[in-house]
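Hi, here's the filled form for the chain we discussed.

Project: internal
Contact: R.S.
Residues: 99
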Amino acid sequence: MTNATTISLIAPAALMETTWQDVRSSFERFCLTAGVAALEQMLREDAEQLAGPRHSRNAERAGRRWGAAKGKIGFHGGKVDVRRPRLRSLAGHEVPLPN
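And the returned structure, exactly as it came back:
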């Protein structure tokens, strides 16, 4: 028998470190994606509360939908795009969203 059958302990430790870094970056991406989705959902709900459901005609609404704007939030020293719905009052002024 000429082949060694013992396994070096250095290779698995390096492999585990690389794997752990991959898991950590994947988890951060997951958290970022989930957080941005939750934030955009809250903004959409605020817009619906102020302007009513999309394409509805309601005399009690505080404003009307006026497209969307790209905003940025900070994340780990960088900036991430967030889509924010815009609303205009019936008088034509920008209506701020509560969140």
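Let me know if anything looks off before we file it.
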